[in-house]
Amino acid sequence: MKKADVIIVGGGPAGLMAACELALAGVDALVLERRTERVRNSRALTLHPRSLELMAMRGIADRFLARGQTLPTGHYANLETRLRFDALETDYPLTLLIPQFVTEELLEQRARELGAAIWRGHEVTGLTQDAQAVHVHSHSRDGAMLLEARYVIGADGARSFVRRQSGIPFPGTDTASTGILGDIVPEEPPEHPFLSMTNKHGLLLMVPLGKETYRFAMIDPLHQHLPADVPVTLEELQGGIERITGKTLRIRSTVWLSRYGDANRQAEIYRAGRVFLAGDSAHIHFPAGGQGLNVGLQDAFNLGWKLAAALRDDAKADWLLDSYHAERHEAGRQLLADTRAQGQLMTDFSETGTALRQLVSRLLSFPDANRSIAEQVGATGIAYQPLPGTGTNPWIGRRCPNLRLVLPDGAPLTLYQLMHGGQFVLIHHPGAGSLPEDLLESCADSHIHVITAKIEDAGMEGIEALLVRPDGHIAWVMAQGDTSAEDWYQGLRAWMLSAPGSKARV
After folding, report:
1. What is the average per-residue pLDDT within 365-382?
2. What is the pTM assigned to this prediction?
């Protein structure tokens, strides 16, 4: 019987990101993917600022940037007013257009480099758990196999077998409106390579993917109530284009076409004992703004280091693993609320719908409103509740930008350069006095990288010490004027987890 620390069911973006994070931490991770080959007609096409920050924390952002096209803005409900990502405090104020299969290729390459095992052609057919392990039955062309893992991550999509087998409810709404998505090859290039249009006749979006191929999305009010399993015809496609644009676009060939819907569902719980859900297994929604893949990556990035830490430290396993649901379920709830709103704006072609789109587009012309929505779509505004006992500083729980640091010898450094190994990072201001020796020893035992450096970023004045989690969120802060240093150190100690090899695995 094959055993692994963690089995990941599903080799899409969320599953592969989880494999990367677990393998980086030295965890024996195994991915079981039903398909024998990667699917090239994948729907997702964008990486947003926060997802690129996650890649930068592990030193691999350039791999993705080299394979995609960059746009300086994002979109909200295909409205005329674009989202100003350049107003965000991030090193990646952009949308990266990169097909999902390329994202998967790069993540799989990274996971294998780190030692994760990826088995294709393995379909999971059974799953049970007890107090010690999860037992997984899989089937491949070589026959049936029984596997065992300490934990299982279900990243196996909207129809997740893991979710159903674990008895996790998936409440929400079914599809009421459908659109068309696919890749096409026009006979001649369109007049404008990037086309975005919404009017009373429907919605149309075209983005170049290569020399001849374009990603195509359309919502046609004449056909938007067709079931998702009804095949798309070329006549329907070209008729919709002519009505929406007023022009003829002759299509030489279609690479792939499908219908998508606006079903909106979220798993009631993201953890059931030793089983966890991530990505589309945990939430499905109208594909507005390209947020689904990005939120799935962020689910996995949140979960990976926590599972690795739980495998090292039995004493803190439960509260740490429970925090995955507490943090990411709320992020998923916000995602579904946002995509419901965008879906309403994108599918109502009545006079009322047109007036509403015009109003929201005008509101987005105000910088503060635009920034707020850009933070939501780009996921740079996500903040988590502080751990009890870690203090009330407003920075705690927030995403930490790529801080500009200056070492005592004057050498420059950035926070993300310190995070390539997936550790906690404790930044200590050189003018704040020495940290207690026992605290430094505890940091070393807990796999916390301690660095003495001055933070140059505006808004961080007065911070004497800062603990950043492996996923880039701030765990603990000590600021000037804090009267009892020992109380604040207790908040830091709450996050101290055993270093690799210092505890028996659970």
Report:
1. 97
2. 0.95
d(CA 477, CA 344): 41
Check if CATH label 3.50.50.60 holds for domain 2-172+264-378. yes
- Strand extents, DSSP E, 116-177: 117-120, 123-129, 134-140, 143-154, 172-173
The angle, 0 to 180 degrees and rounded to 10, between the axes of the packed helices 100-114 and 13-24 is 20
Which residues, in sequence order, are CB contacts of 286 under 8 Å at separation 6+? Answer: 261, 262, 263, 264, 339, 340, 342, 343, 346
Measure Cα distances from 66 to 62, 69, 106, 473 in Å: 6, 8, 11, 27
pLDDT in tens, 446-499: 789 999 999 999 888 889 889 999 999 999 998 887 655 566 677 777 787 654
Across residues 116-126, what is the average pLDDT?
98
The end-to-end CA distance of the chain, in Å, is 19
Comparing 458 with 173, the larger pLDDT belongs to 173
The predicted pLDDT at position 265 comes to 98
Rounded Cα distance between 453 and 407, Å, is: 5
Q: Is 360 helix (H, G, I), strand (E, B) or coil?
A: helix
Name the more confident of 41 and 424.
424
Please report which residue ranges of 271-405 form alpha helices under DSSP H: 291-312, 317-347, 351-363, 367-378
Kindly report the three-state secondary structure assignment for every residue of 426-437. Answer: EEECHHHCCCCH
- The size of the chain, in residues, is 506
Could you tell me the residue ranges of all domains in the chain?
2-172+264-378, 178-261, 398-494
- In sequence order, the 6+-apart residues with CB closer than 8 A to the CB of 393 are 477, 479
Integer CA distances (angstroms), 383 to 27, 146, 398, 472, in order: 27, 40, 4, 11
Supply the pLDDT for residue 483: 53
In the beta sheet, which residues pair with residue 152?
A: 7, 275
Domain 398-494 -> CATH class: alpha beta
pLDDT of residue 470: 97
Are 294 and 51 contacting, i.e. CB atoms less than 8 angstroms apart?
yes
User: CA-CA distance, 284 to 366, in Å (whole number)?
Assistant: 30
CB 396 within 8 A of CB 390: yes
The Cα 39–Cα 101 span in angstroms is 7
Q: Does domain 178-261 have CATH number 3.30.70.2450?
A: yes
pLDDT in tens, 187-231: 998 888 889 999 999 999 999 988 899 999 999 999 999 999 999
> Could you tell me if 275 and 127 are in contact, meaning their C-beta atoms sit under 8 angstroms apart?
yes
Residues 6+ apart with CB under 8 A from 487: none
